[in-house]
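Write out the 3D structure for:
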Amino acid sequence: MNLLTRFEFQKILRRKTTLAGIGCMLLFTLLSVYLSVHGVQWTDEKGDDLNGKAGISLKRQQTHELAGNLDPVKISMVLERYQKADNDPDNQVPSPDGNGMVLSNEAYGKFIARDSAITNLIRSVFSPVDGYDYYVIDSMTAEEAAGFYEVRRDKIKQRLNMDYTYGNYTEADKAYFLEKNDKLAVPFKFDYAEGWEKVLQNLSALGMVAAFVISLSLAPMFAGEYQSGADSLILSSRYGQTKLIMAKLRAGILFTTGFFWITNLILLVLTLLFFGINGWNSNLQIIAIMSPYGFTLLQTYLLSVLIGYLACLMIMALTLVLSAVMRSPFQVIIVTAAVLIVPMFIPDSKRSRLFNHMMSLLPSNMLEGYTSFTTNEVYHMFGQLVPQPYVIAGTAVVFTLLLLPVAYRRFSTHQVA
């Protein structure tokens, strides 16, 4: 880092808005972890509900006992255990509302809870394509459960063949996703993976806050010089129209990079500190059963964070362009906040798949990188089918590379009043 870049980087860090933004980001991260931990509830073998760390500890221990390949034998065994416990009259107690009998808390904690991660996967696969049937496993046979992977493929095929008001999948789309699913290695690797699931679920909100803090911190980069009158000094100096502007751009990139990755590292470390690292090499499908991507949870996390980082770089570049164009940092913050927030209130179209695809390329939707790995969405580009996550990442890179030179040129050609 050269002297000019270090100077501009330190200017960013010394701003009150930057310090306030970093403080808010840390509070938000801590709150996310707190809610993730205290939102866990588990039932022990006595029928008592355990919350927070106690619930996580028992849940991790019991679920991890099932770790390994999620093969037909294990799936059938889990189903048989569930049905045996559920149908045993000794495990039934009168319903609180007086309508029949229900499973007691003690029986649920002793026989059902430990297998619930797998029974929930069975329910998801065997439920109707257009809904979720909690009781579907009550009447299934072990032989039917053993067909788990075949039923999953059939359900994906049904989804691809459904009629959608916003446009159906093309034959090429269907063939692409069926082939992608057929290439998945089965049986899936299963383990307790709640920590990774919580991290992935929190990435979108964390990315939104990070993007806003980045915008808040970089808004004065050029606009602040206009406001203070320093633009005349900068642009009339020997390197004001070249090296100093480049130093500002490099400082913006360094701040965005450091801030984003450190924040995500804090979220990851704190979350896994409570939940454990179990499940890092499990298939993505154990938390998103219909996903067509053959990634582990660790790979999904890294790719999702990378997409979020690229989206934040694009927001950074947009902020710098606006800062070079506008006279007030406040105006820059208002516009970038609108760019981030407004798309969140635009509903998906019920008529146009193309519109929905375009909306996915807006910054706030880009930050939902994990979601793009759980759906069957593909873009037709230059005669090729390109999965949505890769289009999102590529779009962010292209716009960042296009916008940074605009910011450079706009400030360097600024006419001093």
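The first helix runs from residue 3 to 14.
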